[in-house]
Specification:
The structure is a homodimer. Chain A is an alpha+beta fold and about 230 residues long. Chain A is about 40% helix and about 15% strand.
DNA sequence: CTGCATCCGGGCCGATACTG
DNA sequence: CAGTATCGGCCCGGATGCAG
């Protein structure tokens, strides 16, 4: 990308990570080092030459590097983008995530980030429990223990709750914006006791938006629900 | 811009503010409502049609609106971008602001943001004082009172210190990365007691970078100093 | 003077094909 | 598996025109 040519930290930051796709590449790498084809998989819509271009540029700028196995990984500086990106997501989410997912693509690995935002921090009042989520290609497991909540790939042998269906309704349910009945109306299949989800104490970013989110989501035609 | 088509808060945030120039328009509006031509002035290099396009898009997305006098101003949601943008700038600054300003453009109003970052928060130990800065078109005044530091346009009747010269060296001095002698070697004219600047207690983002910043800045040819 | 619209050359983007 | 090559089209940047 052409430089803005401004002596301003924001403009120069955008000279580094302002290109189309650059920040989404960083998002993919927040989960650890990835191979080229893994990145292609996690970035639906990107052209192969663009991915190669961006990787080269981000490497020369010092945001990422290739590890000894040829995989792409964030440098310490690149890892520092996590909080700015989460802040951007937190800013946008109340407005843009309330819109239905529609035809937008979804990768199950992306669950990690909204879950980290919804259940940020340690809260000892959280019970130990496991929730299995099936949305996207692979099953994912959300585990709560010692007040912390983590996400990992794969199934769980004895989950307390299993959720499957469209990602927007599942996230609405987990975030506490949708109650179980409404989530089911939007295509989520729930097995186990959905009521226990509340005890994970989601951090409600903007409670005033919850009604808005619910009504907008409800306006979505039910036909497009499961995927 | 074409949508990424991903159900991900970051991707959808970038659908809203990921276009070239969009975030810099937001930066300009963080200082309050601005007229079209003021924006053109604060965004050196932007084409008029692009400014018009971006303003329209950001307005329909709900990031900004036109006030009753026809000026462009951030909505409450748009104002929420301040912290994410400051975080991005804080992330980039230790690396990219250490590079000399060179031919990059600089507007004196931009001082507001780095000063807010350098002197973030209230610190009662700060003395009441005023620093006049002359870099860019207009003189700016930095005032410290009651532990807070603010920037405003215009001169000061009796400043404790006056700094004029290239913006990179002035900011390096204010941030505490350069001592007065080195700043003068880089083209800064100092009148008043530069030693008092330390008492404003800049928040050093990355002390480990300070040497790096000094040495890199020193590598700049002295010819390009004043502007 | 403000606030754009139009036109045009060049570069970036997106999709597909292809190669070591 | 990990990219490179190619090409149409759209976006960007700069200049200019013009209506209120």
């Amino acid at each position: 990308m052409r430089s803005y040519g401004q002596y301003c930290a924001l403009a120069r930051a955008l000279d580094v990570i302002g290109d189309r796709w650059s920040l989404l590449i960083v998002r993919e790498l927040l989960g650890g080092g990835r191979r080229y084809n893994q990145l292609l998989e996690g970035l639906p819509g990107i052209a192969t030459n663009l991915l190669a271009d961006r990787l080269r540029q981000l490497e020369t700028e010092g945001v990422l590097e290739r590890d000894n196995e040829g995989r792409y990984a964030l440098t310490a500086w690149g890892e520092g983008l996590r909080e700015p990106l989460y802040d951007l997501a937190r800013w946008a989410a109340p407005v843009v995530m309330a819109r239905p997912a529609g035809e937008d693509s979804f990768r199950s690995e992306w669950l990690e980030h909204p879950i980290a935002i919804i259940y940020g921090g340690t809260d000892r009042r959280r019970p130990t429990m496991a929730v299995e989520v099936r949305s996207g290609e692979r099953p994912m497991t959300i585990e709560s223990s010692d007040g912390d909540i983590r996400v990992r790939e794969g199934r769980h042998p004895a989950p307390d709750v299993v959720l499957s269906g469209p990602p927007d309704a599942i996230l609405g349910l987990l975030a506490g914006f949708l109650d179980p009945a409404l989530a089911e109306a939007l295509g989520v299949e729930i097995s186990g006791k959905a009521g226990r989800l509340r005890r994970l104490r989601p951090v409600l970013a903007h409670p005033s938006r919850s009604l808005d989110a619910a009504t907008r989501a409800a306006a979505r035609p039910k036909a497009s629900a499961p995927r």
